[in-house]
């Protein structure tokens, strides 16, 4: 294995083939977000790599930037810049060995309500990053999404078809599954479509110009620091992803809202398991380059309704509070997200490629990951929510 779970980096790190890993300089764009913050933490705690952390915000990595005495001082530098319009970006990519691009608008509530911003963020703004990497012969790890698969083939079969039970109709494979999106009026797919086109550009840069790339397709990574709690560390009217929506409801003792009955299925993976996979990609370029990797946990599948029920139980355990009498309420997608919303029905990643190339497997069960995440949510937000509820006028 390449890493030990100690807090100080081991002096010699070996890759999966037994070669010494040289310290790298990594330009990480979107380093201040949910995934970026965990990746920075991992790189500081367990490796000798240097991170040029690019983002417009740094609240989620402040704990890594501030302590002057931290053992990693000098190995992480924050560069506050918007990649849409900042000429410093090319210089940062040029002086790095590897660029990791995480920057994106990636909350479903935005896809149908801000489709232009979504398409620009996920496609147009990512183009110069690809171009600078290609022109300067720099390696790129680009974050795409499991949403590029869209809906499953099985979802188009009659409801009572026995083929719906056949994995061939729902397992999502990097090299064979089609990308099935709804009509253009269903603006939900603006995100998936933009991500698909940037994947195709990166793949073509690899094929025609020799760009050394890896594409990551995350399948619902969740954990501490994901998104924001509306009215506490994000806008009151904002709609984050489901983990933060449900956490907010639990913290406020409100029913969890099940969109269109909560029948959609997802597989959730603990952020810390997923970050292990990314570190393997960073440190094993010969095994990771030229590949597209699903990164998810096929064993953690639930419907959104089941997720709501499990989160309610877990939150009760970690907070010591009984759950409310009506823990969930149904809401239509039109009411919750507005016109143009649509949904992925089911998302189970095929793990063959990542297993073969990197020998990686997820470890944490859904119950365990919810327990550690909701313990964090309770510790971080319960007091602030109590105060906000007590003084509504001040918010
Ligand atoms: N979390 C998941 O489960 C998941 C699933 C699928 C795909 N992804 C992809 O992974 C990536 C990271 O996701 P995340 O969950 O950490 O999201 P996030 O929103 O927490 O992080 C994205 C970061 O990018 C920054 N950013 C956006 N536009 C920028 C710009 N123009 N200039 C500079 N910084 C900018 C944001 O400020 C934010 O800190 C995204 O590309 C997303 O599409 C994530
Ligand atoms: O309060 C809520 C929030 C969400 N939901 C439902 O929960 C499911 C999951 O919603 P999320 O907000 O986590 O987002 P999705 O899984 O649909 O998409 C995500 O997947 C992969 C990434 O690319 C993005 O981070 C995001 O697009 C959806 O079916 C949604 O309709 C609720 O039922 N209630």
Automatic annotation (TrEMBL):
Localisation: Cytoplasm
Gene3D superfamilies registered for this protein in UniProt: NAD(P)-binding Rossmann-like Domain
GO molecular function: identical protein binding; protein heterodimerization activity; UDP-D-apiose synthase activity; UDP-glucuronate decarboxylase activity
Any one Gene Ontology BP term: cell wall organization
Gene Ontology CC: one annotated term: cytoplasm
Cofactor: NAD(+)
Reactions this protein catalyses: UDP-alpha-D-glucuronate + H(+) = UDP-alpha-D-apiose + CO2; UDP-alpha-D-glucuronate + H(+) = UDP-alpha-D-xylose + CO2
Keywords tagged on the record: Cell wall biogenesis/degradation, Cytoplasm, Lyase, NAD
Domain of life: Eukaryota
InterPro entries tied to this protein: Arna-like_SDR_e, Epimerase_deHydtase, Lipid_A_modif_metabolic_enz, NAD(P)-bd_dom_sf
Segments forming domain NAD-dependent epimerase/dehydratase: 26-296
Keyword Cytoplasm applies: yes
EC number, as in UniProt: 4.1.1.35
Pfam family, one: Epimerase
Enzyme class: lyase
Chief subcellular location: cytoplasm
Family of this protein: Belongs to the NAD(P)-dependent epimerase/dehydratase family.
UniProt protein name: UDP-glucuronate decarboxylase
Annotated organism of origin: Artemisia annua (Sweet wormwood)
